[in-house]
Please model this.
Amino acid sequence: MPGPSTASQPFGVMLTAMITPMRADGTVDLVGAQSLAAHLVDNLAHDGLVINGTTGEASTTTDEENFDLIRAVVEAVGERATVVAGVGSNDTAHSVHCAKGALRVGAHAVMAVSPYYNRPPQEGLVAHFKAIADATDLPLIVYDIPKRTGVAIETETLVRIAEHPRVIAYKDAKGDLDASQWGMARTDLAWYSGDDILNLPLLALGAAGMISVVGHLVGDRLKAMATAYAAGDVLTAREINQSLLPVYTGVFRTQGLILIKAALTELGLPAGPVRLPLVNASNEQLAVLRADLAAGMVSGFTA
Model:
């Protein structure tokens, strides 16, 4: 496993929540996953990858597929990038099982989203994350995305969760900069932006880096933005961020996974179809996406 960059950036700066490439028949493409992982690390400046997250279609893949995918990606890039395994579930026992499996197949860390659908109280969130953290000796990223889960992790709750020694980072997709600032002030968690449109604002508030979706296409530019900001070159960071606005907007005109897979397919990179209940991009959506990515100066797309 590659060493952390600093204590405040335990997984580096630039990570992407990687898609799960599929074959035409909808089965997982492990060779494609290894190829895509290598492309992101070697060509787009990634410090790490999150496997089996939301963008990895973890809600519709099996445990066996997920473990095979983690193993394959670790084999491909584990010596030069951090491989984080998504283990989130609305069933704590299942998340514990997935965390143990991720350890077994070589993951360097785990990430767990707060439980969805069953809307647990805050006390349940504390118990859930602590059970996952207790399950292995792997570091844990807490992932907060209430627009998907239905329950936000309150700041007081996060402070309690952060007391666990293996809870070391937080993926912020809450869209609440007030809560972000209080969370950073009251914990020593490494803060990672989980909402691409807020990457630069969160870096300005003290985030360690990004766990991105658009990083599939522009990870090198995101890394350059973060590096410029950290060096005090705020003007360059702003310019890069503004150049990426059409990418941020374009990828999320519908579910981000759908359009990232469409963009990767256009570039000849491993992607394949999405699994139901998601559906592949329409011709109309593809036309708009091409224009958005051309406006965002994404390599391989022209106006």
Summary: Confidence is low (pLDDT under 50) at residues 1-6. The two ends are 41 Å apart (CA to CA). The first strand starts at residue 14 and ends at 17. The chain has twelve helices and eight strands.
